[in-house]
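Risk register update: the risk of archive-format incompatibility is retired. Evidence:
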Amino acid sequence: MSAQEENLETNIISEENVAEYLQNNPDFFNKHPSILAELQIPHERGAAISLVEKQVAVLREQNQQTRKRLHELIEIARQNEELARRMHQLALTLMEADEPKDIFKTMYENLKKNFHADRVVVKLFADPAFVDSFPTEEFSGKDIQEQSLFKSIIEKRMPLSGRMKRQQQVFLFGDDGDDIASSVMVPLHGESWGGILAIGSFDAERFQPGMGVELLANLGEILSFILKPWIKED
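Archived output:
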């Protein structure tokens, strides 16, 4: 190889060299605008457009995506605001109930409507304070084995959404609860008792793991407070 050929080979600039240089010198095209205008970039449909036009197209697409996401966030905020309003009204209604059967009936009907739930049930691991004054199907007593199914949920005091365990599902919804594909379990608690508010759906996508359940956590606190006078404390 002659000296001239060696010099030519040494002076060859690879695509990687060009890319690295442009990354290290982002103001290059500001200093050389004439080059920017002459560059051609293949379009997805085969036509050639300048780098400026390509950048404008990319920015326009990003802007559209950002605007779409903003609209989605606004809609979510609007829905949450409406849901918070309904939850507030539900809390006031529950406070006006004369006895537990009215509390449970009102809550079941409201949550089925506002949460599009197919099944709603409350189970309290406690005894009623006044046995003769109202039906007690929501009271399960203090069976240790039954409580153990929900021990971690009640102790953490945070709702859990998604697909519940088979034993939990049977206990809450009975043998005919196999149609429940997703649910959220809201812990209820007092000084010496615990319980679960379960909201179930036949739709597997309705209650997803990790979904925001802050409003339901607040409802659990309110319901626990409302039920307190009707529950026998140790």
